[in-house]
Design goal:
By secondary structure, this protein is an alpha+beta fold. The chain has three domains: 89 residues, Immunoglobulin-like (Sandwich); 100 residues, Sandwich (Immunoglobulin-like), CATH 2.60.40; 133 residues, C8orf32 fold, CATH 3.10.620. The chain has seven helices and 22 strands. The strands form eight sheets. The protein has a four-stranded antiparallel β-sheet, with no helix packed on it. Strands 12-11-15-16 form a four-stranded antiparallel β-sheet, with no helix packed on it. A hairpin with a 4-residue loop joins strand 21 and strand 22. The longest helix has 22 residues. The radius of gyration is 30 Å and the shape is globular.
C-alpha cells in the first residue's frame, strides 16, 4: 500500500512540476517588420510580430519618455503604437519600441531614427474670380508639394503674403504622405488688378515650425467653368442679386468631412478652415446693403434659399448649402449665424424640439420687444 501511495504521489506531482517549468519558460517575441504610418492624425509605427505568450509593447521618445503602450494576447498579429501627439511632427532623433512579458521583463527592443520633415513647394495653382472691370480676387490656392521623406508630415496653416496683404490660412489637408500631394487653402484676397504679383507662401506645423516656403509670380486668370452660386431675392421692396464662386477644393473638403456627433452645430459655422469663403460672402452682402437692418437682410438671403426637409441629421457647411441650393432650418441657421458672426455680431444657434433658429445678442436692446433665449450668464438673444 505504501508503494502504491508513493507512486500515485509522483504521478500527481509530475504535471504540477511540469506546469511550473512551463510557466517560467522565457517568452519570445519577434518583430517581423514595421513601417511608419499616419494613425488617425498621429505619427505611428505599425509592427508585425509573433510571440509565444501575451506581451506589452511600449514606444519611447528621444529622451526615453514613454509615448504609448499596448498589450496584446494574439500570438501573431500587427499593432500600431503612436510616436507623437495629434497633428504634431515629433523631434528628430532615436525612438525605441520595447516589448515586455506579463512579468514586466524586457524581451525585445529596437530603435528607429526619425528625421526632421522635409517638405518643398513645387508649384501653386490659383482660383481667381472677376469682381468687376479690372478687379479680381483670389478665392483658393492649391500648392503642389513634395514630401521628400518616407514618413507622414503634419501641417497646420500657411502664411500668404501678397504686396501689402498678409494673412494666415488653415490648410484643408493636415497630413502629407510621401511623394507629391496638393495642399489647399481657402481664402479671400480681393481688389487685385490686371498685373503681375509676387506671392510668398510659407507652410508651418502646429508648433509654427516652417516646413516649406516659396515665392511665385502670379497674374489674374479667370476660369469661365468655375462653379458658382447665383441668387436673386426681394427685401424691403427691392430686388437684390448675388453671384459668388464655389471653389472646388473647399467644396470637396466640406462634402467629405465626416459629420461629428455634436449637438452644437456652431462648429460648421466657425470652422477656421472655411472662413475665407465666409469672409467673401459676408463682405459681398454687406457691400450690397446700406440700410440699418443688416441682420434682417442677411436672414432674408438665407430664407430665400429653397427649404427642403431632409431625412436624418446632416448639418451642412455654408458652401454646401449654396452648392446644393436647398437645405433645412439647421442648414439655414448655420449659414445665417456664420455671416452675422463674421460681421461682428454675438450670435448663437437655438435648438428647439424640431427646429433651429439664430439668436443675436443686442445688449440691452430687444428685437421687436421680444427676448427669445437667455443663456446661463444672463445674456439675452
Amino acid at each position: 500500500m505504501r508503494v502504491l501511495y508513493f507512486s500515485l504521489t509522483l504521478v500527481l506531482l509530475i504535471p504540477i512540476l511540469l506546469g511550473c517549468i512551463t510557466n517560467f519558460e522565457r517568452v519570445h517575441c519577434n518583430i517581423i517588420g514595421y513601417h511608419v504610418v499616419d494613425n488617425n492624425g498621429r505619427l505611428g509605427v505599425k509592427l508585425y510580430y509573433n510571440s509565444t505568450d501575451n506581451i506589452t509593447f511600449k514606444s519611447t521618445d528621444i529622451s526615453g519618455k514613454e509615448i504609448d503602450r499596448l498589450s496584446v494576447t494574439q500570438r501573431i498579429g500587427e499593432v500600431i503604437l503612436n510616436l507623437s501627439s495629434y497633428h504634431t511632427n515629433p523631434p528628430d532623433g532615436i525612438y525605441k519600441i520595447l516589448a515586455y512579458d506579463v512579468f514586466g521583463n524586457k524581451i525585445e527592443e529596437f530603435s528607429m531614427n526619425i528625421k526632421k520633415p522635409s517638405l518643398s513647394i513645387e508649384n501653386i495653382n490659383l482660383t481667381w474670380w472677376k469682381e468687376g472691370k479690372d478687379s479680381y480676387s483670389i478665392v483658393e490656392i492649391r500648392a503642389y508639394v513634395k514630401n521628400n521623406g518616407n514618413i507622414p508630415i503634419y501641417l497646420d496653416k500657411a502664411y500668404v503674403k501678397l504686396e501689402n496683404t498678409s494673412i494666415d490660412v488653415k490648410t484643408l489637408e493636415n497630413v502629407v504622405q510621401s511623394g507629391y500631394r496638393n495642399v489647399t487653402l481657402s481664402l479671400y484676397v480681393n481688389s487685385l488688378k490686371t498685373k503681375e504679383y509676387n506671392l510668398s507662401l510659407t507652410i508651418v506645423d502646429l508648433d509654427n515650425n516652417t516646413l516649406a516656403q516659396g515665392t511665385f509670380s502670379i497674374s489674374p486668370s479667370v476660369d469661365l467653368k468655375q462653379d458658382r452660386f447665383s441668387k436673386s431675392w426681394r427685401f424691403g421692396g427691392k430686388i437684390y442679386s448675388l453671384t459668388i464662386p464655389l471653389p472646388e477644393g473647399l467644396c470637396n473638403y466640406c462634402s467629405s468631412f465626416p459629420r461629428l456627433n455634436l449637438e452644437d452645430y456652431s462648429f460648421y459655422a466657425i470652422d477656421p478652415k472655411v472662413q475665407g469663403f465666409v469672409d467673401m460672402l459676408a463682405m459681398k452682402l454687406k457691400s450690397m446693403y446700406r440700410g440699418n437692418d443688416i441682420i434682417d437682410f442677411v436672414a432674408s438671403f438665407a430664407q430665400n434659399i429653397e427649404y427642403r426637409n431632409e431625412s436624418g441629421e446632416y448639418p451642412k457647411y455654408p458652401i454646401e448649402l449654396l452648392h446644393d441650393k436647398y437645405g433645412d432650418c439647421e442648414d439655414k441657421a448655420i449659414l445665417t449665424s456664420s455671416i452675422l458672426y463674421k460681421l461682428g455680431y454675438d450670435v448663437c444657434l437655438i435648438r428647439f424640439e424640431d427646429h433651429m433658429a439664430v439668436g443675436v445678442y443686442l445688449g440691452n436692446n430687444s428685437y421687436q420687444g421680444k427676448v427669445y433665449y437667455t443663456d446661463d450668464q444672463g445674456k439675452q438673444y
